Every structure is written in structure tokens, then in C-alpha cells.
Amino acid sequence: MGSDIGVLFEREEITLKDLKGMRIAIDGHNILYQFLSSIRQADGTPLMDRDGNVTSHLSGIIYRFTNLIEAGIKPIFVFDGKPPDLKARTIEKRREIRNTAKEKWDDAKKRGDEEAAMKFAKGSTKITDDVISGSKKLLDLMGIPHIDAPSEGEAQAAHLLENGDADLIGSQDFDSLMFGGEELVRNFAITGKRKIPGKKIYVDITPERISLRENLKRLGITQEQLIEIGILVGTDFNDGVKGVGAKTALKLIKKEGTIEKVLKLLNVEIEGLEEVKSIFTNPEVTNEYVIRWGKVDEAGLIQFLCDRHDFSVNRIEKVILRLKSADNGQMRLDKWF
Amino acid sequence: MFKGSIRTSALRSSIDALLAVVDEARFNLTPTGVSVRAVDAANVAMVSLELPDSAFDAYSVDKEVTIGLDLSKFIDLLKMGNPDSICEMDLQDSSRLKIKMGSLKYSISLLEPSTIKREPKIPEIELPGEVILRGSDFRQGIKASEPIGDYLVVGIETKPKEIFIMETEGDVDRVTLELDKDDLFSISVVGEDAVRSMFSIEYLKEISKVTSAADEVKLKIGKDFPIDISFAVGDASVRYLLAPRIEAD
Questions:
Q1: Which of residues 33-92 of B touch A (CB under 8 A)?
Q2: What distance in Å separates the CA atoms of residue A30 and residue A317, rounded to the nearest whole number?
Q3: Is A192 in the same domain as A45?
Q4: What distance in Å separates the CA atoms of residue A73 and residue A107, rounded to the nearest whole number?
Q5: How many CB atoms lie within 10 A of CB B15?
């Protein structure tokens, strides 16, 4: 789930109001994963329609994103394309973790241990092709634009910012900062309280904004050094150096200057170092995309969500009203630049 | 790098003009004067300010420099000085500004310009309609609209006669301000019978507070196009561009 470097960054607590009018390039897989893992019943069973199709992600998109659109936010979904070859090991590892979690979930359900069941259910979350295609269909009906990245979604999201086509990146992961994304916003789609894993404690979660440039300046490092710190800690494309966390990596990089010198000092190697670096410094992105906010398709939404996936007609009709009255008439000056 | 002195009240009104749109901004200090261009976070409103060296009692820049200012902080401390006092500014390096108003001396830390939202390009648009009116009339039209609704239509009609209109329609109420040739300094439309565009009152409200002090405010209007609002205070000139709302079908 990305590089574990979050502890390095200073965040600015914000409210949804601060995001009014902002175009947020959303890491599609990341948000779907959040919805699929968190929108579940007490024993970990996801929401399903009568045919047994999972609908947790659809519920997340229609209800949570209606809130965001009502707040004047303009979401753009960016979905992952083909993963870099180096990600194969991470993907395999995730599959193993998922399979083990699935077995433990079934076991916990049999024992009637709800807390364990929830924990393992979350761990078994999988983003299938059906989840992606259903999500895209729903986004189309809501008028929310989505684009396919040639490779990593967060790299493409950072590219949208660079091109001036988005104002912020929306993701829980910090990898977009390694891809050079200037502004990151977290916790914007999840509301209220979140349970601390393994404990019966709930904490308030509020949206937070992270500025890459300000953080680099405060940390006294360059963008390249941030990438090197991430690589030392471990990314989706390489295992990190054992025993080196983000703070240690920061210290080492600042002292030694480059990852090569740090590795020499520690007398270790990182397989495919240059290739991993270039995934971040020279990511595969495209300028071939179209971003267009469309109209709400009322009949389509009722048909897809209610007729096909058993959502309540009453609730969806209310959502449609809210979507239609949302503040979407305000133009932006960049249309004339 | 930069030294300048200017009447505190003149500096205050320049900063107030920027604050109608942004909280922080980059100031370009050049040998011929100070210029600022900034756009709000939502990219809906832009402000540009030109403060030529003639607006200052004394002005010198030996090397062009860009500094970043936290405008809310800056205005708070300018309010501490007597408006009639002379505000003396001295910039030795781009991270710290010394300010002296009467017996009050400040040394304030500046923002790193690169952390402030990039300066926008100036849109290339041609707006067929133009009116020049009193700042107080513009303010009145907006003030009257505030309790009625959220959006205000600004337009010019030429038939049967030339007339400038500000109009807001709420769920149940409606308010119109009409000014004809006699109430205006000038009115004209090129190549169209009428122009009108709709804007968010939230933005206009802030802008009109600033323009209310101006004798003359020039508005340029198109059909569902941004509005160009410009005026001068002393030697300083201020210009706003505000993106329209698209009227519901």
C-alpha cells in the first residue's frame, strides 16, 4: 500500500469548505479499496445485492461523493493501468495476504468472533474487474469524469496537477508526493470517526492537506532525496532496507547525501535500484485524456442502482435531487486562459 | 534591494483590494513599481494590482525581486499605524521586511514565494459591453441583492435605450437596479444588442467593498463571459476578473 513515509510530513487540517471549487485527481484504486474495506456489516460481510454482487464501493461512491459534489468539489477519478513489472512481487504478496485473511475471516465467522471477523474481512478486500467497471459506470451516470492511467494512477494524478488540469491529489497513500504531486489531500471521502485497528477506540478523522514543496523545504531535502528515502523504507516496487524506517532514512540521506552512499555505509544492496528510481523520476504518464463533467443521468441511476443492485429508490431519489441542485454552474477562469 | 515610502492609507487600500480575492500573494518589485497578480484557490476570481513608483513618496529597487506576503497579517499591522502616517519599507533580503510607521517599527518575516499559488496568465478575452459608473452605485446594486439571492446578473440593454442592469432573483423575491445614460459616466456595447452574465454574489460582495471608495469603476461585460472590473485609487490601479456562473436552463 505505498511507501510508509507519512510520518515525515506536516499536514494542515482543513474542512470540506476549504476544498470548494477544487478539482481533485482521485487515486481510484485507493478510494475503492477504502470503500470496500470499510463499508461492511458487523461480521465483515460487505454490502451485496440479491444476486450476491458486492455493492460497498457503489454505496461509497454515490453517497460520499454526493456530499463532496454538494460541497462544490470537482472530482476526477484516475484509475491504475498496467503495473510496472517490478510491482509483481508486491501484487503476489497482496494476493497471499488476501487469501490467508479470507480463510481466517471464515473461521472467525464460524466462531462468532465479530471483531476478528471484521479485521480479516478488511484484509481480504479485493478490487476485481467488476468493481472497476461498475464504478466507472456509476461515475458516468453521476457525471464525474474518470481517466485511465497508462501505469500508476498516482503518477498520472501528479501529471494532471503539473498540466494545470487538477488542483489536488486525493489519496490516503503518500506515493503521489514521490511522483512529484504538489498538493495532496487525505481523509476527504471518509466521514466522522475511524476505529483504531485492534482496539475499541475511535478517533475523529478530518481532511488534511499536505504541500510537497513546503515539506521538502522544512525537511531540507530535494525531491530526489524524498524518492530515495521512500526507496530505503520500501515501495510497491522494492523491499526496503530492514530496520530502516522513515525517520532513520531521512537522517541517513541528509547525512550521506545520496542513497548510493547510504547503501554503501549500511553494506546492503537494493535490487533494481535505478529502475525503481526511474519509476518515480520518469513515470509513465499520458497527455491523452479528456476531463469533462457531465450531467446527472436520473433514469440511468435508478435503473443501475435500484433495479439492478437493490438500492432503495427512496434514498437514491433524494441523492439525485441533491446532485442536481449542487453548485455546478460556477465557471473557472482557466476556461479563458 | 528595495526601499519605499508611501502613505499608510494608500498602502492599506491596495492590500484591501488584494484581500478581496486572496490571503497571500507574490509581489514583484521592479525599478518602475510594484505589481501583483493573483487568483483565488478555486480559480474563479483574479486580481491584479499596479502600484507605479509615482504612487510612492520615495521608491528605489536596485535589483528586481519577488517577495511573498501574508496579506491578513500585513493588513493587521498596517491598521496599527496612523492612516495619515508615512509607511517606510526596507527590504534587505527576500525573507524579511522592515516597516516603520511613525514611531512604530516592525520587522516581519515573508513567505517563500514558491509556496504561494502560481501567478495566473491573463485571459485573452474581448468583452463587447462597457459601463463606467460610480463605485457607490455598484456597491448599492450588490448590497441590495445580498438578502434576495446568491447570484447576480449584470447586463447592458440597448433597446429601446441604453441601460445598465443589475438583477437578482431569489426563490420568491427579486431586485433590480437600473441606471441609464444620465446616471452613468459612459455606456456602450459593440456589435451586440445586449450582453448579460451571471456572477456569484459571494465574490462580488468582497470586490464591491473595495470599489465603493472609487469615484469611477469600469465594468466590461460579455455574454456568459467573465466580468472585468477596474478602477484607480490615486496612482494605483486595480483590476478584477471574475468567472461567470452559467444560468440554469
A1: 39, 41-46
A2: 28
A3: yes
A4: 42
A5: 19
CA-CA-CA-CA torsion sign (A109, A114, A118, A119) = negative
Same-domain status, A146 and A266 = no
Q: What is the pLDDT of residue B249?
A: 41
Predicted local distance difference test score (pLDDT) of residue B172? 85
| Residue A11 sits in the same domain as residue A127 | yes
CATH number of the domain within which A138 lies: 3.40.50.1010
Residue A294 falls within a domain, yes or no? no
Phi, psi for residue B38 in degrees, rounded to 5: -150, 155
Of B115, B124, B246, the CB nearest to A331: B246
Separation of alpha carbons B216 and B242, rounded Å:
19
Cβ-count burial of B236 within 10 angstroms (0-12 exposed, 13-18 middle, 19+ buried)? buried
ipTM score for this prediction = 0.88
Provide the domain count of chain A.
Answer: 2
A58 and A96 together in one domain: yes
CB under 8 Å to A294, separation ≥6 — which residues?
Answer: A140, A143, A144, A145
List CB contacts (< 8 A) between A216 and chain B. Answer: none
**Residues A27 and A41 grouped into a single domain:** yes
> Same domain for A207 and A234?
no
Low-confidence ranges of chain A (pLDDT < 50): none
Selection from B206, B199, B204, B205 nearest residue B244 by Cα? B199
Q: How far is A332 from chain B (nearest CA, A)?
A: 5
Residues A214 and A250 in one domain: no
Last residue of a domain, one of A219, A244, A270: A219
| Assigned C-alpha cell, A275 | 529502475
**Domains in chain B with CATH codes:** 2-115 (3.70.10.10), 129-242 (3.70.10.10)
Domain region containing A259 = 221-282
User: Are residues A267 and A231 part of one domain?
Assistant: yes
Residue A196 is predicted with a pLDDT of 64
What is the full per-residue pLDDT of chain B (249 aa) written as tens digits?
899 999 999 999 999 999 999 999 999 999 999 999 999 877 899 999 999 999 999 999 998 999 999 999 999 999 999 999 999 999 988 889 999 999 999 999 999 888 888 788 888 899 999 999 999 999 999 999 999 988 999 999 998 999 999 999 987 899 999 999 999 999 999 999 999 999 999 899 999 999 988 999 999 999 999 999 999 988 899 999 999 987 654
Q: Map grid coordinates 456597491 to a residue.
A: B139
Residues of chain B neighbouring A21 (CB-CB closer than 8 A) = 41-44
